[in-house]
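Hey,
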Amino acid sequence: MSLKVIVEERGEWTVLRVSGELDLMTSPGVRQRVHDAVADGRRNLVLDLSQVLFCDSSGVGVLIASRRLMRSCAGRLRLILPAQGAVEGSHVNRVLAALGVRRLFDCYPDLDAATDDAASPLSA
């Protein structure tokens, strides 16, 4: 399966809608999209992972590197992960939790919550 990334703007937020498998072959494309957004001056980034069906360690590495990059430029990174038990995307949530890195990210259930500054992130 391939990976697809659609970029859209939502107010002050740049949203990368990622779908497919986030693995060794496809994760460099996501990394490049994040770098491109930062190079374009975007400092508020949402990675919508609700349609990611598989994520390996290289995908997790891209998420951690994206977090580090956004923090280094005083930016914000938010992840969209569906609630536990959802069919699409729950794999990413389980992988992040199993590796003990889920708590590093501000995660939201959907795009509306992720782009609302008044919304609170999901608990880890």
